[in-house]
Amino acid sequence: MAEIALAFFVADEVDAIEIPHVLYGEWHDEHRLRRSVPKVQQFVEEVVPQYSPSDFKSHFRLSRGHVEDVMTTIGPFYWNRQHSKVPLQNSVLACLWTLSNQESYRGVADRFNITKSTVCLHLHEFCSLVTTYLSHHISWPTGQALHNSELGFRAAGFPNTVCAVDGCHIPIVKPHCENPVAYINRKQFYSVVLTGFCDSKRRFCHVNVGHPGSWHDARAFQLSAVGRLLDEDPQSLVPEGMHIIGDSAYPLLPQLMRPYRDNGHLTARQRRFNQKLNVARVVIEHTFGLLKTKFRRLKCLYMKNIANISTAVTACCILHNMCLEEGEAIEVDEQVEAADNRAPHPQNQDAVLHRNQICDLF
After folding, report:
1. Closest CA to 104 of 193, 37, 180
2. Is 260 contained in some domain?
3. CA 248 – CA 342 distance, rounded (Å)
4. Which ranges carry the DDE Tnp4 domain (predicted)?
């Protein structure tokens, strides 16, 4: 019986694990053939310039002008990993393509005539640079931005609203950490929680990423910067008489409105309050849908380092806001998850009074 060698090629952040079964004597020939797979030549130099403006945005999500802005901003800080001589433009376009599509790392590497390891390294660097030097594209609404957001929520039927909050699960593979089981959510897949706040125009105002998928939305919210400020200095975020809106997973606070718990005895006004709040609050669910429609890598993020995962998701949220600045209409193809109502919250009497006063308006 011939001797069989089992070779494992395991890439830390690729979407497949190859386990070829080959005869030991033939392994070197097959390995050489695998390494010499033809790649696409001159894709960035010859193919990309032929894209129409709409085709370019379809593939890379940003317009050519915004890609130029990104390169201008991060260019001075760009470090060419592995001294691979990959030009900045090629690196940025490869990273945008990777985030925007579910194409395998191998497919991206072949398309841009680089290696899988180069794709991974440049992707991490790109996301880190975006979150560091383009973070101003995510900002809390103040002044005219706050006024415009309030008008949008008022038109949706719920006045005096700053923004909406919700949690979203980003699927991942089993992470490298001390307690990977904590990242298995109630639907039994690995994920991290993205806590997002958005205005009435579906623009992210704040994001917090990286908490384990098994955590309740309220717990992740309390550990976000917004959650801490609402506890320590709420007036710095939410002006007097205004509020954030969320679903029943969140605590009721004077600055955070949630629906009445339906115990079967709600009054007609309380039911109208719930209906109007839910209609206005759905904007954050649409925002998550737009995010995953644009950056489809987030439908399953093949990364194992939690810090890299958090950086990549945050970078996509920043790029999402940049897309909205271009005034582009996007269809949502993401199904909205049902709210998680597992954890009851203690009553805050000031918040109860404030919610009842709003309810009396309906």
Report:
1. 37
2. yes
3. 9
4. 165-321
| Domain identity same for 100 and 168 | no
What is the pLDDT at residue 2? 41
Which alpha helices (H) appear in the chain, and where do they start and end? Answer: 27-35, 53-60, 64-74, 88-100, 105-111, 116-133, 143-155, 217-222, 225-232, 268-294, 306-325, 349-359
Q: What is the domain extent for residue 193? A: 139-325+347-361
Lookup: tokens for 346: 């203690």
Q: Which residue has the tokens 């130099």?
A: 45
- Which residue's structure tokens are 């030991």? 24
Taking the C-alpha atoms of residue 78 and residue 85, their distance in angstroms, rounded to an integer, is 12
Packing angle, helices 88-100 and 306-325, rounded to 10: 90
For residues 10, 14, 19, 23, the Cα torsion angle rounded to the nearest 10 degrees is: -80
H helix or E strand, kind and range, residue 208 = strand 204-212
pLDDT of residue 228: 93
Other CB atoms closer than 10 Å to residue 26's CB: what's the count? 10
Could you tell me if residue 166 is inside a domain?
yes
Is there a single domain that holds both residue 126 and residue 212?
no
Examine residue 334 and state whether it is found in any structural domain, yes or no.
no
Residue 87 token pair = 């030009």
What phi-psi label fits residue 195: left (phi over 0), alpha (psi between -120 and 50 degrees) or beta? beta
pLDDT at 1: 41
Q: What is the pLDDT of residue 78?
A: 87
**77 DSSP 8-state letter:** G
Residue 76 shares a structural domain with residue 126: yes
Are 95 and 176 within one domain?
Answer: no
d(CA 224, CA 31): 48
Question: Considering its fold, how many domains does the chain have in total?
Answer: 2
Give bridge partners of residue 207 from the DSSP assignment: 196
Where does a domain end: 105, 135, 165? 135
The Cα 199–Cα 141 span in angstroms is 8
CA dist 51 and 295 (Å) reads 19
Along the chain (362 residues), what's the average pLDDT of each consecutive run of 10 residues? Answer: 36 40 43 56 90 94 95 88 78 96 93 92 95 96 96 94 96 93 95 96 96 94 93 92 94 93 89 94 96 95 94 98 75 45 56 74 74
User: 293: which 2 tokens?
Assistant: 């429609």
